[in-house]
Amino acid sequence: MQPIAILTTGGTIDKVYYDALSKFSVGAPTLPRCFQEANINYEVSVREICRKDSLDMTDDDRARLRAAALARPESRILVTHGTDTMTKSAEALRDIPGKTIVFVGAMQPAHLRETDAPFNLGFATAAVQLLPPGVYIAMNGQVFPAGTVRKNREASRFEPA
User: Fold this and answer.
1) What is the pLDDT of residues 17-69, one digit of tens each?
2) Which strands sit side by side in the sheet containing 142-145, from one edge to the other?
């Protein structure tokens, strides 16, 4: 099995809520804990790019994400990202040749009891191992090539653009 590089940017998947008013902060990446709970025992390397809500991501953040993806020796890269601007970031990496890059996030924080995070992470981990080179979004049991998907906020899902 080929090693997988994981680049984290924050987003809802890593949010930690502090009180009943839903004040939150983007915390440390939850992916290592999720992988441990799922008994994932193959080689992964995790690099934190930023800890931001995706609505706060800038073009500079996307440039750093792109540079990190290009610099990784691994050809398989999983990117955890907030769902609101995931499509924009995926498109910013779309022309990177020779790598399979899969973006994944969650509609509910991984720290919550009812969350889609573990399923999405497992699904995206399988996708990054099986898909041909390209940039994709893997959410809620579906894979979309970058540039062909949009977030439907009302339905809380991703769908073809």
Assistant:
1) 665 556 666 666 776 766 666 667 777 788 999 989 889 999 999 999 999 99
2) 44-52, 4-10, 76-80, 100-104, 134-139, 142-145
Q: Centre a 10 Å sphere on the Cβ of residue 33 and count the other Cβ atoms it contains.
A: 12
- Residue 114 is predicted with a pLDDT of 74
% of the chain beyond a pLDDT of 70: 81
45 is in an annotated binding site: no
3 state DSSP class of 62: helix
What number is the average pLDDT over the span 100-123? Answer: 83
CATH number for the domain harbouring residue 109: 3.40.50.1170
Among this protein's residues, is 12 annotated catalytic? yes
Overall number of domains in the chain:
1
Alpha-carbon gap, residue 106 to 83, rounded angstroms: 7
Pair 11, 81: CB distance under 8 Å: yes
Print the domain residue range for 132. Answer: 4-160
Annotated active-site residue in 8, 9, 12, 30: 12
Chain Cα centroid distance, residue 21: 26
